Amino acid sequence: MAKAKKTSAPREWSKSDLRTLKSMSKTDTMRAAAKMLGRTPGAIQQKASAAGISFSKKVARKKK
């Protein structure tokens, strides 16, 4: 008989986690932030979106 997979409750986001997420959004990727915070990239994406934090990098175009 197969064992039932244990599910864990989601961890709450601390103020420190949000500060780290915001600062990492300026220079790092979502994957790097996920590894640093010990969360999944999906959790990082959802929280960033809910908090209005963008991880997209805007590339400046060179003037001709």
Mean pLDDT: 87
Run of helices and strands: HHH
Radius of gyration from the CA trace? Answer: 16 Å
Distance N terminus to C terminus?
68 Å
Helix-and-strand structural type: mainly alpha
Helix content: 40-55%
Number of strands: 0
User: What is the global morphology?
Assistant: elongated
Q: Could you list the spans in which at least 5 consecutive residues all have pLDDT below 50?
A: none
Quaternary state, please?
Answer: single chain
Structure annotation, total helices: 3
The largest sheet, given as strand count, sense and whether it forms a barrel, is: none
Beta-strand percentage range: under 5%
Q: How is the secondary structure organized here?
A:
Layout: H1 15-27, H2 30-37, H3 41-51
Describe this structure in words.
It is a single chain. The protein is mostly helical and 64 residues long. The chain has a domain at 15-51. Helices cover 50% and strands 0% of the residues. The protein has 3 helices and no strands. α1 packs antiparallel against α2 (30-37) and α2 crosses α3.
